[in-house]
Amino acid sequence: MIPLYAYRDNSCDPKKCTVKKLEKFGLIKIVTTIPAIPRSTLILDPTAEQALSPADRMVRSITALDCSWEVLDTGAFTSFRLHRALPFLVAANPVNFGRPFRLTSVEAIAAALFIMGEQDQARAVLAKINWGIRFLEVNEEPLDLYAAAKDSAEVVAIQATYLD
Ligand SMILES: C[S@@+](CC[C@H](N)C(=O)[O-])C[C@H]1O[C@@H](n2cnc3c(N)ncnc32)[C@H](O)[C@@H]1O
């Protein structure tokens, strides 16, 4: 099991917030200041240069930046060493259904867990959201391929077959 964190700046509507649901079940710790984020964590950053891969599986924790897309400023997190972007996957949430790359925090966390070999934890996290398990269904093929890759270069090569 990999410890999960979400940094929340309250720019998202708390009623629609996916990580708050996980917090209720004790599956994630929400932090509201940048210094409270563990230094060694892997930051889920859509602007990161390196794609997340099974080679990241030894991480100590995963942190989602749970801000609204409009205000997300990944520049505020440059002091963290580990930033990873998720490869091509499509959203299953009702707001962005079918849209590639723009995942909710819970979808992003579940995808990272799945690719790192923590499939049971990924399912447990998604099971707390109404439409959650749908994310695994619509992304079944790419998730299985990414999880079987050796490293980031292989993940990027697999992603290219979907972007063609
Ligand atoms: C911008 S917030 C939006 C939160 C949304 N309102 C919710 O309730 O979940 C989504 C976060 O999930 C992670 N994320 C989403 N898509 C991602 C991707 N393609 N690569 C890496 N991280 C991603 C990032 O941490 C990102 O900041």
Automatic annotation (TrEMBL):
PANTHER family xref list: 18S RRNA AMINOCARBOXYPROPYLTRANSFERASE (PTHR20426:SF0), RIBOSOME BIOGENESIS PROTEIN TSR3 HOMOLOG (PTHR20426)
Uppermost EC category: transferase
Keyword S-adenosyl-L-methionine: yes
One Gene Ontology biological process: enzyme-directed rRNA pseudouridine synthesis
TM region(s), chain numbering: none
Binding locations of S-adenosyl-L-methionine: 18, 65, 86, 105
Taxonomic source organism: Methanosphaerula palustris (strain ATCC BAA-1556 / DSM 19958 / E1-9c)
GO molecular function, one term: rRNA small subunit aminocarboxypropyltransferase activity
Subcellular location field: Cytoplasm
Keywords: Cytoplasm, Ribosome biogenesis, rRNA processing, S-adenosyl-L-methionine, Transferase
16S/18S rRNA aminocarboxypropyltransferase Tsr3 C-terminal domain residues: 42-163
Domain RNase L inhibitor RLI-like possible metal-binding per the UniProt entry, residue ranges: 9-32
EC number: 2.5.1.157
Function in brief: Aminocarboxypropyltransferase that catalyzes the aminocarboxypropyl transfer on pseudouridine corresponding to position 914 in M.jannaschii 16S rRNA. It constitutes the last step in biosynthesis of the hypermodified N1-methyl-N3-(3-amino-3-carboxypropyl) pseudouridine (m1acp3-Psi).
Domain of life: Archaea
Family of this protein: Belongs to the TDD superfamily. TSR3 family.
Any coiled-coil regions, as ranges: none
Protein name: 16S rRNA aminocarboxypropyltransferase
Catalytic activity: an N(1)-methylpseudouridine in rRNA + S-adenosyl-L-methionine = N(1)-methyl-N(3)-[(3S)-3-amino-3-carboxypropyl]pseudouridine in rRNA + S-methyl-5'-thioadenosine + H(+)
Gene Ontology CC terms, in alphabetical order: cytoplasm
